Amino acid sequence: MNPNNLPRRTFIRNTSILTAAGLTLDPFSVFAGSDAKVWTVGEIMDTFISQVPNAPFQTTVDTLKIGSREQVVTGIVTTMFTTLEIIKKTIELKANLIIPHEPTFFSGSDETDWLQSDPVFRAKYDLMAKHGIALWRNHDYIHRMKVDGVQAGVVDELGWNEYYKQNPVLDIPTTSLANLINQVKEKLGVPAMRYIGDLNQYCSKILLLPGAVGGKRQIESIMKEKPDVLICGESNEWETPEYVRTANEMGMKLSMIEIGHSASEEGGSEFLTSWIRKHAPEIPVTHIPSGNSLSII
Length: 297
Ligand SMILES: [Zn+2]
Fold this sequence. Notes:
single chain
């Protein structure tokens, strides 16, 4: 991902204008003398949730992990994973609300009882607490908008809007698997990806399932849609990759590309950034890609 994406540059330009004018990003000075709306964390959450069909949900992982609903928002950072670096950049930006897509505390439900005395957990949690940062996970809600916000964001990032029918199946101009991999690598800024299949295979029908939707759902979607290639975020090696390997051993024309979880859904954080800019234009918002935790050698 390109960390110097346009929204970030725009934000920095805006803040330097404010700085030049002797203003800081403190909300009270920024908004002083104007009627600009001041947003609380709860208002941001409620406004987003109000646009999701059948929301709010009884059961959801999209809870406030730290901070309070009443807190006035000075700035928002969107990302996939809240790393220590993301928290430090949030502090530098004088923002105080992080909206990640994925868990912060190393499990789906972000339970923290088992981590209380762990230094890795404490490093993250205490840094946010010390700087008054609130964190709201937005995973279920963005996926269950009328059109899945993550899917739409990733399609946009891949430059495939003209082939998008608001579902995971896209018919793109025919290309080889090798070319397709290069295209995805370039658009999503991923240096290397794992794949299964024949690099010379011609691909047109794409099944795009960002993130980690689970082996059964990936395989059931392959059975239903019969794509040339599955493009996913990640999968357990003993599930979908073994299915695709067997299909190849049988001579079936079926490939699979694994982007990596973070990059595969980062477009969703860009979607969220645009959403905030549109619905809460008073708040400076910055999208910071969190990149892949795993390096390649
Ligand atoms: Zn997701």
